[in-house]
Amino acid sequence: MTEEEYQKLKERRSQIAQRGLTSNEDELNHVWNSYKTITGSTERRPCGCASAAKHWQKALDAIDNYLKEYDPTDKETT
Q: What is the pLDDT of residues 20-46, one digit of tens each?
């Protein structure tokens, strides 16, 4: 992930943390595609309904862990 992509992900995750994950397709796609990139998952994107909440939480947790562990500006973590 480039520094620019990292910053975009960090910014969008901060927005989601402030207001919650919405059912906006662009936002859902960004979260799920980021999750897949970070984890290497090939899982299909779940629906945006409440019954899929555990899948979305798993994706957000993976993103949070990635943001905590990886900083593209820090040469020791790249």
A: 998 889 999 999 999 999 999 999 999
